[in-house]
Amino acid sequence: MKMNKSQWVGLFILLALLAFSLLGIVFSPYSISQQDLNAIMEPPSAAHWLGTDHFGRSMMTRMAHAIGLSFALSVLCVLTSSLVGTAFGVWAVWGGKKIDHAMGVVVNILLALPGLVVVLLFAAIAPGSFLVLYLAISLVQWVEYFRVVRAVTQGVIQSPARQSSQMMGFGRWYQFKRHIWPAISPSVFTLAAFGGANAILTMASLGFVYVGIQPPLAELGLMTVELFPYYSEAPWLLAQPLVVVALMVFSFHLLAGKRT
């Protein structure tokens, strides 16, 4: 699979944001909660490249940590949900009717529950827990992988090529690599790109309602809520987390484009 121009643009933006996050975390002279009460809501300057917030904290440092947190959550959720969804999707087809039926019942139950409500319930049980957010978002997202992989695998399992491999005595792992993975990988990569964007949006949405990551940690949605009262006095502060969320989601969507 080769990426087209828009996918390269999306990948470049994501790598640039990731580089900004890593460099900001490593080289910033300020800590995430360090305050300078003599420099409250200052515009960008040589001392504070992105200005300071309403507590006099460095916006560059906080943005670097917030972007890193969003990347960490999206990558973990994508890896977990794609692995679980792909494994269960293939197993449901390969394991026989009983397993397929049982998996179908579980998936239908999960689909009957609105995903955001499930995540909100988990977040309300343990407010501010990164681990709980990761588990809740992964629990919601793996279902999409399962449905797509199961549908594609059903056709591959019945194909003459796969049946020939089976009759020749090749193991299931070989059959998966040779026949199933090439058929499902484009769909899995597309779902993974959208899943990364959805994980970031979900995390920001929880920050908007104060049930996500809690202060003094920096998170893009939480920063937006904290800085919103000052939008008329210091609009550049509110714009920073909003622009970054938009850029990250836009980049993941570009990355999900059709491969050639």
Describe it for me?
- The N and C termini lie close together (6 Å).
- The mean pLDDT is 90.
- The longest helix has 37 residues, at 172-208.
- The chain has 9 helices and no strands.
- 72% of the residues lie in helices and 0% in strands.
- α2 packs antiparallel against α3 (97-111) and α7 packs antiparallel against α9 (235-255).
- It has 260 residues and is mainly α.
In short:
The chain has 260 residues and is mostly helical.
Annotate the secondary structure layout.
Layout: H1 5-27, H2 59-94, H3 97-111, H4 115-125, H5 130-157, H6 160-167, H7 172-208, H8 220-227, H9 235-255
Helix pairs in contact: 1-2, 1-9, 2-3, 2-5, 2-7, 4-5, 5-7, 6-7, 7-8, 7-9, 8-9
What order do the SSEs take from the amino end to the carboxyl end, as H and E? HHHHHHHHH
Major sheet characteristics: none
Mean pLDDT: 90
Globular, elongated, flat, extended or rod-shaped: what is the shape?
A: elongated
* Alpha carbon gap, first and last residue: 6 Å
Provide the descriptors you would attach to this structure in a database record.
260 residues, mainly alpha, 72% helix, 0% strand
